[in-house]
Every structure is written in structure tokens, then in C-alpha cells.
């Protein structure tokens, strides 16, 4: 009996001490001079939560706008942030790449996810080509991220017919759309926006090795960006714009290098001295003069280059080995050569000057992703004991497509936006814990 | 031919432990008096506080005490409004002493078993510092045979040999996600031994006592501890299993000076100053038996500085049977800015103590103690992990001891 009483007191004591937790008084979240009651996100694939070469539910759920919106709740933001999510039964959306393992060289092996897709068909649009369409989304939208969209497209009435990711947001049948992106995003009132448009105006050119796309003219970019911000701010909304990353800061261009290819060739044949690329002869963007030359470290090879082509006999050039002679260089579309790199850098710098100037003229916050990602590339990023960097897969930030981010990468980006907003508007949106979001998933 | 770069994961389990981990819970009477005892002769706990005083003990005794330790820590990451709390886990520092010598003899032999260093912290696997530390259970158990000799009525000396058994059980998340998005896990678990000594001298005058004691550094090496890594199957080769590790923890030496004054025969006042030579703790190195490009040996700077603590206490004997005690103190941190880690987020600290002793019978005493310790709030960015935020910690330590003396 006496023992029982003792145990009771001990239990009571344990309960009492367990309840006494130390307090830390955190600064109260606040919106400052901004108003987060309806936040909308304007942008492309990065804004949509695109990852691993596709748009799918899990990526959407970890999009940086959704992370920002969640953090905004305590600072006067809306309880819900509507995204055009794919349904659970079509959770894999457009399909995406999955890491399935590593081969005997330690190189990653990926496979496409092809089940539970939201694809409804392929429609041929005259004078354009085939457009893949997806199951329509009909609910409210606050995240207007459309994969593939350029700033160049925001006033094109027919654009809804050319981009399946935009098409699924619009009412009406494919082929009949006439609503511009700019009208679509500004149709309903909003109080705050984030805008990360412009990447594809440079990226499309870069990822196609300067062969499959053209850079948006600098003056056109400036005019459209000015109009975009004028539209977004005309009812008094405040916002944040992001600069465009240096395309050479992403693993898409830094993983397969000429030196790596050469080393692989020399393993089989030590006498090979160089690999050849078909490179632009000057930095004139309008010029189409290309010539074969030995690759240097300044030439960037795309992540999608099938290295198995190297050394294969090229029938049209007397069966000379691919990539190893001036007559059989690596084709233009796989190489962003040194001159093309200069051109892209020049355009991105001009675009970013526009973004910063226009934003400043409207007192809009700027999240300088160009500087941030260049810094990550140069120095890495150490957060809460995790070492992040711009390396493919192991870096933790970039997803399997080498261009878009992992959930962890998007969380890092969200914090950059939050910091810029807090500084500009004297707000206090709490930052997110980067460790709560995963990097590349390993099997 | 290799399509893409070899996977080079820069995952360095730079794991840290042994911090401001001094427990100081040497005996219930002394805890009640603010951890003073170097300059007093109270009971068998002199084996810990000042082996020089053991020969002055009037009786032989055997005693044991336990001090359940509630370590409550909170962390607020910089720029966030989230506050993480460590889990409710109770560490159980204990002390046990036996003192024997011939009646009225000039010498006494003592044996002490106590836990001068330790830590039990569990932050869980979903807090923002999980890649630095999830949980740590560090124990050091000292066993100390002691001999003490009374040189004259006013002075005695003593010394002992210290054997330490240390153990560590540490878990930490590894930043690689499995197919389900869950982190990898590292667990380092092992035990090891160390040796040291201590010595002290005790002076006694009318209405005044004083003591000086020294406990040596005890370098404890954990050799062949188990290193478990739970990672996705495709990365298992980067974290070879089974694996073992070796690490050394230098438990620092401590110099103490203490005084006792006796204004009346019912009242005892005591003052202690401790100086802990934490500066021996320069670096924490982990040496894995099997290394890979991912799993490298680690070498983490700690660069602790020596730190002092100041303690005062009093005891009032209300009757022959009941003694009441109070005390308090202030301890300076040994951890420099930039080196604070979540195992025992250290900062300057103050504490208050209270206690009571009761004679149950001619030979049998019970002592109870309570301590509240406040580790001052400290905003830090760790230079090694960049874990940035504010730690705030408080500690509650009730305790009870039984003594049989003859």
C-alpha cells in the first residue's frame, strides 16, 4: 500500500516536470505593408512544381508557391491555396522520370513512369504540330504556373491551343481557345503575386543546344515584362519577382562534360586526343555559321546526350566514328558551345536587368535567383547540417531532369522568396524547414 | 561507357557529443546546498567532492542516491516561428559511496560509484536539426577506490584511482530519401573504458573548514563501437555494413576549492569554486573501420574553453533530526560561439537548489534534494552545420538518497 502511494507520487512528479517546457518567444508573423489575403503565383514549370521531367501530383504539392502560401497563413494569408492538382487516380500527370538504380559504373539509371497518367490525347494543331492534352482542371486556381510558357507567350490568344498544360486550365475544347495567359491570370482580384516568368525565353534555346529554339528579343522581353507588371500591379497588388538563373548553373549542362566523354573514350582507345563538336563560329545571334572543332571545357553538353552514340560509325560520313573526327562532330542540338553560352549569358543578363528595373519602378520585391543559384554552384549551400549543391542527383536540389528542382530545392527557393518579401514589405513570413522536404528519391 | 557522373554523395556524418555535459550530481546533501562540498565533511560523497576529507568522517557509512534528470530544451530556427521541444526522457544519474575505517583510526578507505558526465537528449526525427542529431544517450560511470589519511587533527589528505566506463548511443538522420521519402538513419553505439585519478586535501579549524581537490582528465576511448546505417538499397554500398567506429572523448579535469563556515552549531555555510579544464576538448574525431567516398572519417573542431562555476549553499539543523538546505550557483559555458550543438545546447547557466535531511533512526538517514537549472537562452549558428536558431533549456532534478552509518 505504502509502495503504491510512492509510485503514485513518482508518477505525479514525472507528469509535473514533463509539463514544464521552456518557452521561446518568437517574433509574431505579420504581413507588413503587403496583403496576403489572395496570393497568386505566375510562372512556368518551376512555379507549377514540375520535377523529374514531368508534372505530377507530388511535385505540384511541393511547388514553391504552395510552400510560400502555407507559410503566409500565419501572416494574414488565406487558409487555402488552390492549385490545379491532378487527381489521385491520375496522380502521375504527364508521367515523369524515376531513379531505378545505378549501373556497374555507378551511373544512375532512370525509367519513365507511365501508369496513372492524366493524358487525354494528342491533337494536331494546324501550322504548329501535335499537342498532348490532359484531364481538365475546373476548380479555383491560385497557382498559375504553366510548364513551358515563355514571357513571349503571355499575350498570344491561341496559346491555350499550343500548350496542353495551359489548355487543361481553360474551359472549352482544344483548338478553340482564345484567352491569353495575361487575361487569364488577371481575371479575378488578388492582393499579392509572385512572378517567375522568363526562364523559358532563354532556356528553350539553351537546352536545345541553340538549335531548336530562339531567344526572345531583348526589347520584346522588356516591353512584355513591363506590361505584365503593370497589369499585375494596376489594382494595387504588391508582389515579388524572381530573376532568371544562369542556365549554365544547372546540372543539365554540367553533368556530361567533354572531359568525361573523352576519358570514357580513352579508356577504350588511349590514342584518341579529342572529341569534336559542331560549334557556332561567332557570337552573332543571327548567324548560322557552324563548324566542327575539338571540344573544350567551355562547351556544355546536354544531360540528354546519348553517349552511346560516341564512336558509332556514321554512314553519311564514310563510316567515320561519331564525335571523334571533324567530319563527324557531336551534333549541334547536344552542345551549347562556348559562343552560344556567351549569347545566352548576355540575354539572361539583359532579361534580369529588365526584371530588376521594372520591379524597382513599382517597388516590387525581387528574389534574385540568378545570384543565389550562381552562389550555390560556386560554394554549395549548407542548411541545418545538410550539404546541398548543384550536382546532378547527389546535390539534393535538382531533380532527375537536371533543370527543375526537388521538393527540397523548391523549399530552398521558397525561403529565398520569403526573405525577399519580408525585406521589401517589412513583413515576417516564417521560413520553412528545408529538412522537412526530400531530395531525389533513391530505390 | 559511363553515361553520367559517379555518384559522389558528400554525406559526412559529422557527429558530435560530449558537451557541457558535466552532471555534478555528487550527493543529495551537497545538491541541496548548491553543489558545495569541497570544503565540507558531510558524508561519503566526500569521495567525489574531496577525497582528502574522507578521513575526517566520524563514522563508517554506506549510501546511495539517485537524481532523475528532466532535461527540457527548446529550439527555434532562425527566421521561423516553429519551436521544437526535445522528448520527455529521464536520465538517471546516481551516486553510491561506502566509507570504512577503524574506529577513531587515522585512515579511511572509500569506494565511490557515480556519474559525473552524461546526457540524454531526444529531439526526434522530424525537427529541423535532425541531420545534426536526433538523439543521444551518453553515460560515464566512474568507479573510484579511495584512501584518505588524517595527518593531524587539522589536516587530512586523500586520493583515489578512477575507472570510467563510458557509453554512447547516438542517432542522426542521413539526408538521402528512400522511395517513401523517408530519410536514412545512422546509429553509433558503443562503450569504452578510461582511467584517471583524483586527490584532495582538507583543513579544519574552529568554525572554519577548507578543501582543495583535483580530478584528473579521463580519456575514454570507444573502440569497435557499432555503426549502423539504414539507407536505400541502391546506396547501401556507400555505407558498408557491418561497420565499426572508434572515437575518443576526453572527460576534462576539474580543480575545486571550497570553504565551510559555521556561525552557530546549527548553521553551515559553504562556498565552492570549480574550474573545469574543458580546453582539452579540441576536436571530435570519428574513425570508421570501413570508409567509402561517401563515408569518410570525420574531424570536427570543438575548441572548448576552460570554464568556472561558483556555488554557495547553507544548511540549518532545525532539530537533531531535520536539516534544511538551500543553495545556488552560476556556471560559465565552455562552448564558444559557433560551436553550440543540439546534444546539450550549452550556455551560461544558473541554478537554485533546496534539500532536506531526516534521521529516520540512529543509523539511518534519508536526504532529498531538488534542483532547478536554467541554461540561458542562446542564439547561435553552428559553424559546422549552419544550424541556426535559439536554444532555451531548463532542467529539473529531484533526488533522494539513503544512508546507513555506524
UniProtKB/TrEMBL annotation, chain A:
- Keywords linked to the UniProt accession: Hydrolase, Signal
- One Pfam family in the UniProt entry: Lipase_GDSL
The GO terms this record gives for MF are: hydrolase activity, acting on ester bonds
Tell me which InterPro entries the record gives.
GDSL, SGNH_hydro_sf
Record PROSITE patterns: PROKAR_LIPOPROTEIN
Give the signal peptide, or none.
1-21
Official protein name in the record = SGNH/GDSL hydrolase family protein
Starting at the broadest rank, the lineage of the source organism is: Bacteria, Pseudomonadati, Bacteroidota, Sphingobacteriia, Sphingobacteriales
TrEMBL record, chain B:
Q: Which InterPro entries match?
A: OMPP1/FadL/TodX (IPR005017)
Q: Which UniProt keywords apply?
A: Cell outer membrane, Membrane, Signal, Transmembrane, Transmembrane beta strand
Is Metal-binding a UniProt keyword of this protein? no
Q: Please provide, alphabetically and separated by semicolons, the GO molecular function terms listed in this UniProt record.
A: long-chain fatty acid transporting porin activity
Quote the Pfam families the UniProt record gives.
Answer: Toluene_X (PF03349)
A GO cellular component annotation here is:
cell outer membrane
- Stretch forming the signal peptide: 1-18
Identify its membrane topology class: Multi-pass membrane protein
Q: Give the UniProt family note.
A: Belongs to the OmpP1/FadL family.
From the Swiss-Prot or TrEMBL record, give the protein name.
Outer membrane protein transport protein
Q: Mind giving the lineage of the organism this protein is from? A: Bacteria, Pseudomonadati, Bacteroidota, Sphingobacteriia, Sphingobacteriales
Amino acid at each position: 500500500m505504502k509502495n503504491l502511494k510512492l509510485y503514485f507520487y513518482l508518477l505525479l512528479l514525472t507528469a509535473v516536470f514533463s509539463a514544464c517546457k521552456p518557452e521561446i518567444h518568437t517574433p509574431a508573423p505579420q504581413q507588413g505593408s503587403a496583403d496576403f489575403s489572395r496570393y497568386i503565383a505566375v510562372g512556368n514549370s518551376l512555379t507549377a512544381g514540375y520535377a523529374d521531367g514531368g508534372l505530377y501530383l507530388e511535385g505540384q504539392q511541393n511547388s514553391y508557391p504552395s510552400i510560400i502560401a502555407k507559410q503566409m497563413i500565419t501572416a494574414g494569408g488565406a487558409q487555402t491555396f488552390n492549385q490545379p492538382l491532378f487527381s489521385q487516380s491520375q496522380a502521375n500527370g504527364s508521367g515523369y522520370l524515376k531513379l531505378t538504380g545505378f549501373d556497374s559504373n555507378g551511373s544512375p539509371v532512370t525509367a519513365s513512369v507511365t501508369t496513372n497518367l492524366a493524358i487525354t490525347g494528342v491533337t494536331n494543331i494546324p501550322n504548329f504540330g501535335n499537342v498532348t492534352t490532359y484531364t481538365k482542371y475546373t476548380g479555383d486556381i491560385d497557382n498559375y504556373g504553366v510548364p513551358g510558357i515563355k514571357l513571349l507567350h503571355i499575350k498570344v490568344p491561341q496559346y491555350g491551343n499550343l500548350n496542353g498544360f495551359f489548355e487543361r486550365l481553360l474551359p472549352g475544347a482544344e483548338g478553340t481557345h482564345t484567352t491569353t495567359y495575361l487575361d487569364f491570370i488577371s481575371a479575378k482580384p488578388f492582393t499579392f503575386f509572385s512572378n517567375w516568368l522568363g526562364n523559358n525565353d532563354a532556356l528553350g534555346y539553351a537546352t536545345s543546344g541553340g538549335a531548336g529554339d530562339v531567344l526572345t528579343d531583348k526589347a520584346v522581353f522588356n516591353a512584355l515584362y513591363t506590361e505584365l507588371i503593370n497589369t499585375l500591379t494596376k489594382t494595387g497588388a504588391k508582389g515579388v519577382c524572381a530573376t532568371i538563373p544562369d542556365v549554365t548553373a544547372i546540372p543539365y549542362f554540367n553533368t556530361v562534360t567533354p572531359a568525361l566523354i573523352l576519358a570514357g573514350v580513352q579508356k577504350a582507345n588511349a590514342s584518341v586526343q579529342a572529341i569534336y563538336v559542331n560549334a557556332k563560329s561567332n557570337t552573332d545571334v543571327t548567324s548560322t555559321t557552324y563548324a566542327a572543332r575539338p571540344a573544350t571545357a567551355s562547351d556544355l553538353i546536354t544531360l540528354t546526350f546519348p553517349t552511346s552514340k560516341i564512336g558509332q560509325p556514321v554512314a553519311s560520313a564514310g563510316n567515320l566514328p561519331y564525335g571523334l573526327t571533324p567530319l563527324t562532330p557531336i551534333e549541334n542540338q547536344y552542345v551549347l558551345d562556348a559562343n552560344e553560352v556567351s549569347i545566352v549569358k548576355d540575354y539572361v543578363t539583359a532579361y534580369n536587368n529588365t526584371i530588376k528595373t521594372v520591379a524597382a519602378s513599382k517597388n516590387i520585391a525581387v528574389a534574385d535567383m540568378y545570384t543565389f543559384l550562381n552562389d550555390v554552384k560556386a560554394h554549395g549551400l549548407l542548411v541545418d547540417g545538410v550539404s546541398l549543391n548543384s550536382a546532378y542527383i547527389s546535390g539534393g536540389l535538382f531533380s532527375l531532369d537536371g533543370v527543375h528542382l526537388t521538393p527540397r530545392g523548391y523549399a530552398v527557393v521558397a525561403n529565398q522568396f520569403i526573405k525577399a518579401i519580408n525585406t521589401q514589405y517589412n513583413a515576417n513570413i516564417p521560413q520553412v524547414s528545408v529538412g522537412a522536404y526530400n531530395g531525389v528519391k533513391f530505390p | 561507357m559511363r553515361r553520367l557522373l559517379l555518384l559522389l554523395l558528400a554525406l559526412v556524418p559529422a557527429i558530435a557529443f560530449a558537451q557541457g555535459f558535466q552532471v555534478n550530481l555528487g550527493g543529495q546533501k551537497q545538491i541541496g546546498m548548491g553543489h558545495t562540498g569541497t570544503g565540507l565533511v558531510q558524508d561519503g560523497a566526500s569521495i567525489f567532492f574531496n577525497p582528502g576529507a574522507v578521513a575526517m568522517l566520524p563514522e563508517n557509512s554506506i549510501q546511495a542516491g539517485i537524481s532523475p534528470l528532466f532535461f527540457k530544451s527548446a529550439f527555434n530556427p532562425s527566421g521561423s516561428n516553429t519551436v521544437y521541444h526535445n522528448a520527455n526522457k529521464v536520465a538517471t544519474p546516481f551516486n553510491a559511496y561506502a566509507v570504512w575505517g577503524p574506529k577513531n583510526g587515522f585512515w579511511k578507505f572509500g569506494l565511490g560509484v557515480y556519474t559525473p558526465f552524461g546526457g540524454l537528449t531526444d529531439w526526434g526525427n522530424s525537427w529541423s536539426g535532425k541531420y545534426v542529431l536526433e538523439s543521444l544517450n551518453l553515460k560515464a560511470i566512474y568507479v573510484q577506490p579511495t584512501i584518505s589519511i588524517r595527518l593531524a587533527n587539522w589536516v587530512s589528505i586523500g586520493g583515489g584511482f578512477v575507472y570510467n566506463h563510458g557509453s554512447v548511443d547516438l542517432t542522426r538522420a542521413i539526408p538521402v530519401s528512400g522511395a517513401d521519402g523517408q530519410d536514412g538513419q545512422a546509429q553509433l553505439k558503443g562503450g569504452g573504458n578510461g582511467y584517471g585519478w583524483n586527490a584532495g586535501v582538507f583543513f579544519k579549524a574552529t568554525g572554519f573548514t577548507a578543501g582543495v581537490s583535483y580530478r584528473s582528465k579521463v580519456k575514454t576511448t570507444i573502440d569497435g563501437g557499432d555503426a549502423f546505417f539504414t539507407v536505400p538499397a541502391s546506396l547501401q554500398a556507400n555505407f558498408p555494413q557491418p561497420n565499426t567506429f572508434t572515437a575518443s572523448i576526453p572527460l576534462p579535469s576539474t580543480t575545486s576549492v571550497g570553504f565551510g563556515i559555521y556561525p552557530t552549531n546549527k548553521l553551515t555555510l559553504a562556498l565552492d569554486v570549480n574550474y573545469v579544464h574543458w580546453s582539452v576538448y579540441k576536436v571530435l574525431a570519428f574513425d570508421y573501420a570501413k570508409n567509402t567516398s561517401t563515408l569518410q572519417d570525420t574531424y570536427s573542431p570543438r575548441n572548448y574553453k576552460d570554464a568556472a562555476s561558483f556555488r554557495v549553499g547553507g544548511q540549518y539543523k532545525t532539530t537533531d533530526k531535520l536539516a534544511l538546505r538551500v543553495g545556488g550557483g552560476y556556471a560559465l559555458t565552455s562552448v564558444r560561439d559557433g560551436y553550440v550543438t543540439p546534444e546539450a545546447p550549452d550556455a551560461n547557466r544558473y541554478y537554485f537548489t533546496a534539500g532536506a535531511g531526516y534521521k529516520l533512526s540512529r543509523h539511518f538517514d534519508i536526504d532529498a534534494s531538488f534542483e532547478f537549472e536554467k541554461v540561458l537562452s542562446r542564439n547561435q549558428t553552428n559553424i559546422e552545420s549552419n544550424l541556426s536558431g535559439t536554444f532555451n533549456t531548463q532542467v529539473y532534478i529531484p533526488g533522494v538518497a539513503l544512508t546507513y552509518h555506524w
